[in-house]
Amino acid sequence: MTNYDILVVGGGPGGYIAAVTAAKYGFSVALIEKEAQAGGGLGGTCLNRGCIPSKTWLDNAETIERVKQASKRGIDAQVVNIDMPAMVKFKDRVVKRLSMGVGALLKSWNVAVYNGTAVVHDLDNVVVTSAKDKENEVVLGCKRLILATGSRPATIPIPGADLPQVLTSDDIFNIQTIPPHLTIVGGGVIGVEMARIFSAFGSKVTIVEALPRLAPNLDEEVADALLKSLKSAKVTVKTGVKVEAIEPADSDAEVNVVVSCNDVTERIPAETVLMAVGRAPNTEAFSELGLEMNRRFVKVDPNTLKTSRQDVYAIGDITGLSMLAHSASVMGERAAKVAVQSLNGSDSEEFYPFPIDYAAIPSVVYGEPSAASVGMSQQAAEEYCAKNSLTLSIGRTIFGGNGRAVASGMGEGFVKILVASGDCQTRILGIHIYGPMASELINEASVLVNGGADVKSLASVVHAHPTFGETLSIALHDALGGSSHQPPKK
Ligand SMILES: Cc1cc2nc3c(=O)[nH]c(=O)nc-3n(C[C@H](O)[C@H](O)[C@H](O)COP(=O)(O)OP(=O)(O)OC[C@H]3O[C@@H](n4cnc5c(N)ncnc54)[C@H](O)[C@@H]3O)c2cc1C
Asked: What's the pTM?
């Protein structure tokens, strides 16, 4: 058996950041990843079947849309052909390059990488079985264990869910032909992004969602704007409908997605169905540890990421605290620091003086325009201010008045900043951006919400002109009494 100070199971954005952080402090660290292989495999769901493949194809979708709009700018251009196998190959090159980068990063910090599936019997008995060589097991031991096994696509138990035409996000990034009709079950972030991609590629896309509205975690105004943009891209959105079954249709290539609403049944024909109904945590590999669970997720202290066992930490998607790549990385860094402290025999919080503020982690629904949010939604901010006797001021501006956005042909959308005042300080509770470059602007918005400085001094920061980011400055001035760039507030 080989022993390490710290063992990490899972090589996604949670696991590899945890491993590197621990190694930086001089401890012996190993990472086990079942998909690691020469030339790739590291990086988890995010890099291999999630964030990066989807953004590569969203960029293709935006390129197609921009070519279609080019004639308005006096440029004659047209999309002659969309070569799906070539798009898959391009995505594979992007993934391989970044995944090799993760491998090089781990190597540079002397993290030992084991390629295989881990089963944790206990901390002195972690068995790694390689997919290539099932006979040859390796047994590892450790003083501290960080679990980062991530999640997989969830499914719904309906007849026909296992038909070959039904794909998940694990499969769709290898699709070789563009389906003429794509039905997406689930109107969350993944469903909306895939709808935007395939509608630009030429599929007739239908989203079916059981809840009354799309992307229910988003601020209502942002979700409404997103719905409008999907409709203008000719995506059919059916909310409040229940998927009953997926049935083979008359033609071999097709299926019918059977949905019902108020006792009315409808059959939606499609060559491909994407099941995007959420994610299920991968917890089987360590079930013998008997960790306390919170529904299907591993229960942790949100600040230290300690599980019900003091020497075991869990991070990322398996905790259900925030199912985003950057959240997994923040948790990975924190868990590694807490583990390092405990190996040093200290429980001081010197290494991690600030609690992780999950409410201030930004999230983005990508596409053109993107929807990006940080902090409270308007509805939550209204309730919070009413409860705490605070005054809520809402600052707004539109991209239609932003020089850079209009020059770029992207003058659709708005910025909304929610500012609370009334106690000793003025605080920004939330920022919502629906528009061009929202996924970039949200990083500055996160600094504002995280409250690194007082709001009035933030408002005095000069923004370069012409930039998309000027909208943040204008909306903040608007919340604080009015911006000279806008007509009087009504
Ligand atoms: C289509 C899609 C798009 C997404 N887009 C975004 C986005 O734009 N931005 C964003 O922030 N998030 C996005 N996400 C979510 C993001 O991918 C996850 O939140 C993130 O990957 C979670 O990181 P993790 O480290 O917890 O787990 P994962 O990334 O899932 O990594 C877990 C790793 O553990 C390995 N593993 C599991 N069990 C074992 C075992 N027994 N032994 C060894 N290895 C094991 C797995 O192979 C995997 O590599 C997207 C997800 C999907 C599906």
From this structure: 0.96
